[in-house]
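SEQUENCE WITH STRUCTURE:
===
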Amino acid sequence: MLFIRHATTPGMRTACFPGDENADAATLAKAAALTGFVEAPAVWVAPGRAVRQTVAAIGLAAREAPALGEADYGRWRGLPYERVAREEPEALARWLTDPDSAPHGGETLTAHAARVASWLDAMRDEPEGVAVCGAGAIRAALGHALGLDPLGATRFDLAPLSTTELTVTRDGWRVAHVNRKVPI
């Protein structure tokens, strides 16, 4: 399964919790250069404008996979990390250290990881697919493949439009590569 992180958004550039926003035009132009690079019998797309715009720029026809959506950050959605750290330092500290905590009123990292893992395991019969989504879903998939807890999986750096590939094994998934920059 080849994962592609979606194009950059203004919120990514300003260090905000993920929200549903448009991808920026410059990064979408880079995504268009991937046309022909990515070919697969099946392509899935996470919900969200930037993800759909990335898929369209690449020229892929995709099926929506709600399980690949970013975690629900509740009232923190779209807010700058710095603001949350200033206004809710204890809640942010709890969220950063406890994957079962959702002080923002949204989804826990544990629930998000389980959602992505369930989808990934359901795809074992279609491992040659492509999934275009955000960093959170890719990190959750890596965590599942490597047996990491949700907090351990947050340590992966994933650039916009980078690829991460998992291959099916008899008893799970193997990591083929992480955060590979595609020549554009």
Q: What stands out?
A: The helical segments are 10-13, 25-32, 49-58, 81-87, 89-97, 109-122, 135-146, 150-153.
